[in-house]
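Fold these two proteins, one after the other.
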Amino acid sequence: MYPQIRLFGVVTIPTYMLSFIAGLALSVLFAMRLAKKDGKDRYDVLYAAIYMVIGIGIGAKLFFFLSRIPNIIRNFDIYKALWKLNKLEALNYLFGGLVFYGGLIGALLGIIIYCRQYKVELEPLIRIIAPFIPFAHAFGRIGCFLGGCCYGIAYDGPLACHFDYNPLSPHLNEAPRFPVQLLEALLNFICAGVLYILYKKTRLSGRKLVAIYLIYYTIARFFLEYLRGDTERGHVGLLSTSQIISIVLLPVALIMFFIPEKTA
């Protein structure tokens, strides 16, 4: 586990951030190349990516805050005491993490806003970008593995990983863990490959490609949550926050896929 990388002995960078930036940069470069080959404006991909990054940041933080609300309600007196004692720490508790689903929704909204603002046709652009959403996400999950976040359940079978001591999760090294982050990364790489093949071999619209990704990922994420060991990510009853979001998004994705498309 390498939660941080020190560059030139001066700058310390979280490996999660470095991994995600690498995945995002590769995704944008590949998508720009694909756009050029298909006769589209590759710079629309680049500028839309900037809007996507802003949307990811806002959405991921907002959903993280929403995931904290049940815990705050249950332990309001404790949080109130923390706020009085250390406001920065209390704010970090509210906004100190990221929720992927929020980032995904924020990214899609970012593309829509860019297209509306600059009068760019949404459908061709989102069709080009769709295969690279799970590609970038896979790099993010590799970063989670390196950083020791989003870790798996205690597990002593094949491929079990024993993490080093991490002050952010001091209990993490108490038992070997299932490498759920790497499993999710693998599933995302597979999804990216399937979407790319569908892009090249079929005439499926961007909406349908995004719908296929959402159907695939919401089902996968629902079951992957049972392999997660980081209970602080938020629960409502027997379901985690991400499982509830998966249940909500799955019918939306199915409607996106099966609703008839407008014909010219």
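Now the second one:
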Amino acid sequence: MPTSNIDPSFLPAHQLAAEIQAQRLSPVTAVEAMLDRIARYDSKLHSFVSVYADEARLAAEAADKAIRSGHSVGPWHGVPIALKDLIDLEGRVTTGGSEAWRDRRSPVTATLARRLISAGMIVIGKTHTVEFAMGGWGTNQHRGTPWNPWDLQAHRTPGGSSSGSGVSVAAGFAPWAIGTDTGGSVRLPASWCGLSGLKTTIGRVTTYGILPLAPSLDTPGPMARNVEDAALLYTLMQGADPLDHRTLAAPAPADVLNGLRRGVRGLRLGRMPAAERQGCAPEVLAAYDAALETLAGLGAEIVEVSLTCGFADTTVMAGRIIGSEAYQLVGDLVDDNSLPIDDAVRPRIHLGRGVTARDYLSALAQRDAMKRRFLPIFDAVDALLTPTTQTAAVRVEAVDQNSTPAHFTRLVNLLELCALAIPDGLTATGLPLSLQIICPPYDEATALRIGYAYQQATDWHQRHPTGLE
């Protein structure tokens, strides 16, 4: 059977899978193409901590033989994927972005990784993260900061903490990747790397075997080049896991694919209040307004809404909870000044050192009260739309490490909502801009439905960084 002449490096995952299953493209060819790109470009982009080249080649050869012999395990057999370096693979080094854990070997394999591997996917490697996943800019002092591929001349923020996952997909090193999101860590790199990234609701996707930052807020999520791929990967990720009690309490998984193509006609979409536009770059706001116009043209009703709390308020409260829970987990490491802990990360986690049990429990109670007051907004709208970030990616040397780019994202984690980030434009200098679609808890299906409709009417998600051909 003829081999496809399409470069597999930038094929959407679902198209890549279809080519492999139709035997027009061998998994061996796909894996070799991505390994070749990694070898050529990742010395600059620095997206991978480890590349499992030999193992990926063996898995690709096995997948090729299985598919050709009629023993495919499913539609994703032979499709590569990258995993954030928080996700345990038994016996392999998982550092959590920390030089202090450079020799830490995983005691287990994360349930999520088992699910993906069982579906036939090939783990091509582990991607860089901010140390302990504690930061939104994507920087890492000791293990290196990935280079945003949308500007090969200036080192710009990749977004964090799932920095390497974002860069690897944007650069064509993998068709999709797994990130985790505690305050925006899937959506921030999706925003700045021009991807579609889904922040899932607590309990939708198991966290067993994933190094925690703040367990009450941590959520794994898919990062892909388009919403369809994000929806397909999310469908594989979600579901109950006896090793994660929160997944057992979550509602039954929804069939997100069934409603993906229903369009937005009749949906009511909330426009963020005018006061929340302050602090956003003009190009961000222009792209945001244009996205709302596009969705209105597709039949959605754009509704003015009032919020019961501001994004800045939830940013501060979420930071307090993250710091408290992170300090409980890694406080012994950040308190040890002899260890090589990132100078920007250490003080963020030290914020939790002075939080008493009473203060922490009070913050949780305040969060629950804020959630009760906020959720009725979804009686009036199906989703709330905001920019994902206030600016496009900034130069790394200009980053203020005492600030956070998670202005619009932390609210979603704090109030246990779900949200999708999708590309909605480019700056005049060619940097990605992003729209955030916020939905009620466990309503990922609606967020994906809105994002899919938007991408059928636009082509921002089809743009790729130049200079990596």
